[in-house]
Design brief:
By secondary structure, this protein is mainly alpha-helical. About 45% of the residues lie in helices and about 0% in strands. It is elongated and about 35 Å long.
Length: about 100
């Protein structure tokens, strides 16, 4: 999960995946046969509206994983199973998508 930066868009780290600003330039544009897929990484979320559970998942699961811990390592640290951690991440994803909707 990335979220820190200077507000400019370009390539997503070393992945080589064009982000919103670079995808519009002809130099980095995707072929027209490909469709763009919206992910939680491209959503604008009202973080202050995040539920207490969503905040807990973000702090205890998502942030450690974004720092390099694997899902198995996070599960072990929390004394939970990989499936449990995956479920919490799915809950967080659903909440982030809901919060990013115009009616949220």
């Amino acid at each position: 999960m990335t979220g820190c930066g200077n507000g400019t868009a370009g390539r997503d780290g070393n992945s080589g995946i064009p982000t919103e600003a670079s995808a519009s330039s002809s130099e980095h544009a995707l072929p027209s046969s490909r469709s763009m897929v919206e992910t939680t990484a491209t959503l604008l979320v009202n973080w202050e509206a995040l539920s207490e559970e969503g905040a807990w998942i973000t702090t205890h699961i998502a942030f450690p994983m974004s720092s390099g811990l694997s899902i198995v390592e996070v599960a072990s640290l929390l004394g939970e199973t990989k499936a449990w951690v995956t479920g919490r991440l799915e809950e967080l994803q659903a909440e982030l998508v809901r919060l990013a909707e115009p009616s949220a």
